[in-house]
Fold this sequence. Notes:
The complex is a heterodimer of chains A (570) and B (73).
Chain A: E1 3-13, H1 17-29, E2 35-38, E3 56-57, H2 65-75, H3 82-101, E4 117-118, E5 126-128, H4 136-150, E6 154-156, E7 159-167, E8 170-178, E9 184-194, H5 213-220, E10 225-226, E11 231-237, H6 245-248, E12 254-256, H7 264-267, H8 277-289, E13 295-298, H9 307-310, H10 315-326, E14 336-345, E15 348-349, E16 362-364, H11 380-402, H12 412-423, H13 433-444, H14 447-450, H15 455-471, H16 481-506, E17 528-534, E18 540-546
Helix pairs in contact in A: 1-4, 1-11, 2-3, 3-11, 5-16, 13-15, 13-16, 15-16
Chain B: E1 2-5, H1 15-19, E2 25-27, E3 33-35, H2 46-50, E4 56-58
Antiparallel strand pairs in B: 1-4, 2-3
Amino acid sequence: MEKKLLETDVLIIGGGSAGMWAANRFKDLQPDKEVVIVDKGPKDWGGLMTMAGGDFDAVMPDENIADWMEDFVYYFDGLCDQPLMEEILKCSFDRMQDYQRNGCTFFKKDDGSLKSVPQRGLPHVKLYPAQLKGRGGEMMVRALVEQLQQKNVKRLGRILITDLLKQKERVVGAVGFDTLNGDFYVIKAQAVVAATGVGGWKTSYGKNTPTGEGVELVYKAGARLKDFEFSRVWNMPKYFGWEGQTTLMPLGGRFVNALGEPFMEKYSPILKANTDPHFTTIAMAMEIRAGRGPIYFDISQINPDDLVLLKPQNGWQLMNYEKLRDLGMDLFRDNTQWVPQMTISYGGMDAGIHGETNVPGLFAAGTARSTEPGVYAGGFALMTTSVTGYLAGEGVARFLEEQPQVEITLDEDEISSLQKEIYAPLGKDGLSPKAVLTEIQQIMFPYNVSIIKTETALQDALHRLKTLQLTKIPQMAAKDAHYLLKLREVRAVAFVSELYLRASLERKESRAGHYREDYPQRDDAYLGWLTIEQDAAQQMQFAWEPVPTAQYKYPITRYYSDNFTFIKKD
Amino acid sequence: MIASIDVKKCVGCGNCVNRCPLDVIRLNEQKKAYIAYPEDCMTCYICERYCPAGAIYVHPFREALPKIFTQEY
């Protein structure tokens, strides 16, 4: 194994949508500076975007930003970072146009206008489906990679960044390792953008790579985190992966219980099935707990003319559909069994509009920064990751203009110690990362921990997790560099699980995507974001950052969660 | 989950190896692709889609996960 030293102006960790947009925008502004993108996956694979359907939220020029803002303030139960969201919405159409200029196409109606699909029963928020259902995200990746090639952005794949380097208080680089041959990397940089995605639990198609090493990395460097009580609990087919149910629900798709009842009408007489999946999965869990499971997906109410929008036309989605059909499982003919499944965490860095964090020299982009409190409108991620990536590129450019260039002197003792720590599990006998991951999933997946949360279940899970962190995590071993990556992933999954459990215990109310059965009402005392920082004793410090309602433009007068009977009003 | 790679059909181009997001596939000394880390497959089909020789088969079922409910489902 070799030791490799790189030096650049900007290091971007993560080569997905946000990382590529950050690099792209930065090079527009400072074409002579060097940018390196490092990703733990293959070079230029594009992260989760490569597997996205390509649906995009955007505010069209003839629409009002204020209308969309009112939707999001309501949808987020007040936990909307209003200046940030306003900026995201303002920039959304420009980013969609950028994609169209670079060859990405969206679905058009017969009259040539773009087809849109309203989201979650909200009056204004809507997505624009990609023309090539099944390859929309791939086309976007291709378009961005071409831009980066033209702008001489260096891209490296299969390297996991494990630690940030600081000089005084400023981040000045990172270390990591090659996940194929184990080479050790030291990268000096004047600034770092963390576009590392979220944490998660390695549950299904598309959700096996966001495991939270980025969260652990920035937390150790002193970054403030927030929103870890919110996780994405998605409705998924029991046996296979599927993308695109977001588009199915507004067009008549619905879930029914074992008795054939469309149960969402009972839990939300106003929105019925056309609502946010996080509320659907709470209802699914309640139905199953009451003995009315399993749950099936029913497409009988969808207008046949709309099926063209829903049936996969190419890419992995078509291949998946055809293979399942060959096995006698046709989502467009039969009722298939679905389950509520915890997938990823919504928590991320607490950052300003241009990605600036509380750590000088460290910027946040995409889902590595938190933007939504456990609810999710279809098309939201491709909009927010493109815009926040773009804004982080601008933030870094301004930072490098305003801050003096630093002469980076590496602390060889620190680097040697980090190197030793990285490779310590290599070549030893011990527990396999996969076995430990399964144990973490066994702790986290039960419905009273992941969906209908209670103090007792969360405390029990936390106790079991802490025991696992003390007894099993240190015993994991890696026989090669591949397993060294998996080991770091599993360690991060455990870390994110701890953040989730502790944060879920702190928020003693139900709001947005966080549902506590023992506190089933909203409480104004919790109208704020729960932040987490590491203190001097390396303990997690939780603090409440109240929503600054007096300074905010849009008053919080309505709450999306009021649409559901399981949220108590008094 | 990735089910099989037909050694006779594999042309050793390395497309699957280079593109797999989870590093599941490697080339052996004979320049043939093999499933090196099957437990890490996430059923994304990238390998099968980019194989020019039709040598790879991915089964559409995802891996079974720990239970959410005490009931079977």
